[in-house]
Amino acid sequence: MPLGTLDRTPPPFFKQGPSALTKLVFFAALALFLMVADTRFRLTGPLRATVATVLHPVELALLAPVRGWIAASEYLGGLQQAREREDRALQQQAGVAERALRTEQLAAENERLRELLELRNALKVRGTAAELLYEASDPYSRKIVIDRGAKDGIVTASPVVDAAGVLGQVTRVYPLMSEVTLLTDKDAAVPVLNTRTQVRAAAFGDPGSVAAGAGMELRFMASNADLQAGDALATSGIDGVYPPGLPVGRIVGVDRRAGSTFAKVSVVPVARPDSVRHVLVLEPMAQQLPPRPEEAATSAPPPRRPARGASRPGQSDRDLGARR
């Protein structure tokens, strides 16, 4: 048989279906549709929460060897550190006792002044202890995941602090865990107060300056503003989220460029997420503040109209008798 007459097409068993280009176009359109649906209509939110709940035991099982190794290393290497800390604690005990006495005296004096001026006591912030599970794998954001979720009463916008100061804010809550956006994230912002000048400002995350020893910046600050390297920044509490007075960061550089209206102010946060293990999730201050005046006015009952013939405030009996 001549070779030109042979059928060179593969049998139906070896056919691969649609072409590679068709598959690429189909899956690209499907991915684009899912991204738009998740952004606009939040369709994949329940699915994401379900998958996160299902994978949570697997994540804990994978983290078990790492936790065991860390615990063993800390146990073996912590004995010497414990002895050194004990010696330092004994040396500092005398000074701490004196400062504690001063603190008690100042607290009692402050309480008497509050009662004298009829000021309200500060709001008591409730918190939930949590442990760091892992750091998010997204290279374009700065986020961590903690082991407390909706079943523990965690809500979005809850401040997260460690022993040094403010660490970040809860931005996504799952049933068994939560996602925390750190202050150094590009989308993070916190209102701050300069403790030296008592001037309020807003600190934003600046991931590009982490390598330079910063991580945050104060934006929209005038070039002639009273700012100095070393100024401490704390939360101002005007946003209804962060309690006032929590340490946030410290100014490390002020660049007043000639011809520019605003100065570039670099801030280093006091909290170090790379070395933290245990955090405290605080309740947002908005849940503890009293209602706004307009909300209280709408919820209050309407004033009662005086009965006919009844005297109004400021109306004398003489005027009533003249009307009769």
Please explain how this structure is put together:
The chain is an alpha+beta fold and 324 residues long. It folds into 2 domains: 23-99, no CATH class; 122-289, Rod shape-determining protein MreC, domain 1 (Thrombin, subunit H, Beta Barrel), CATH 2.40.10. It is built from 4 helices and 12 strands; from the N terminus they run H-H-E-E-E-E-E-E-E-E-E-E-E-E-H-H. The protein has helices spanning 20-40, 45-117, 293-299, 317-323, and strands at 127-135, 143-146, 159-161, 166-173, 178-182, 189-194, 200-205, 216-222, 232-235, 247-255, 262-269, 278-282. The protein has a 6-stranded antiparallel β-barrel with strand order 1-2-5-4-3-12. A 6-stranded antiparallel β-barrel has the order 6-7-8-11-10-9.
What descriptors fit this protein?
transmembrane helix; 12 strands; MreC_beta-barrel_core; about 35% helix; alpha+beta; MreC; 6-stranded antiparallel barrel; disordered C terminus; about 325 residues; 4 helices; 2 domains; transmembrane; cell shape; Thrombin, subunit H; globular
